[in-house]
Structure formats: structure tokens, C-alpha cells
TrEMBL record:
PANTHER family registered for this protein in UniProt: TRANSCRIPTIONAL REGULATOR, ARSR FAMILY (PTHR33154), TRANSCRIPTIONAL REPRESSOR SDPR (PTHR33154:SF33)
Annotated ranges, domain HTH arsR-type: 1-95
UniProt protein name: ArsR family transcriptional regulator
Source organism: Jiangella rhizosphaerae
Xref: SMART domains: HTH_ARSR
CDD domains associated with the record: HTH_ARSR
UniProt xrefs under Pfam families: HTH_20
Signal peptide start and end residues: none
Keywords: DNA-binding, Transcription, Transcription regulation
UniProt-listed PROSITE patterns: HTH_ARSR_2
Molecular function GO terms recorded: DNA binding; DNA-binding transcription factor activity
Domain of life from the UniProt record: Bacteria
Amino acid sequence: MDDALRAVADPTRRAIMELVRDGERSAGELAGHFPAMSRPAVSQHLKVLVEAGLVDVRRDGNRRLYALRPEGLADAAGFIERMWSVQLRRLKEAVEKE
């Protein structure tokens, strides 16, 4: 979970995740969405996402195709849900006391 949260803390990596959310995209296609960034920099972001388990990569000839792994965020989402539900319960209790 820590790696996933660190990975999504970066706005570029969140943008990449949105780009691969609906299907595979090649590294070159992804890099094209970030013209101010070098391809090696985009590749480094992709590496972080893969290592965090948020994105899958597969080879297709000489290309690498990236796709979102929604289950990669499951632990982080569960943690956030638990924290949010505690706060909502406390708010409900406070309102009901008044």
C-alpha cells in the first residue's frame, strides 16, 4: 500500500494511470502526452507504477504496452474507506447528540 500511495502522489503518474485506465497504450503513445518531458522521464514514471503494482506491462514485439491494474489500489482504497467511514460515523454521532 505504501508504494501505491507514493506512486499516486505524483500528478504525472496519476495522469498516466488515467490514460491507461480504459486500455493498453504504448510507452511512445504515453510519452506523446507529455511533450515537455523526456521519454526516459516518462519511462521512469512507468517503472514506478509497475513496481507499485498499479500498472501492468507486456511486450508486443519491440513495444511495451501498459494497462491499469485497478486491484493495485485495493489496499489503499480500503484504508481510505476505513478512515472516511470513521469520520462519517463520528459526524453522525455528533449531529445526533444535538
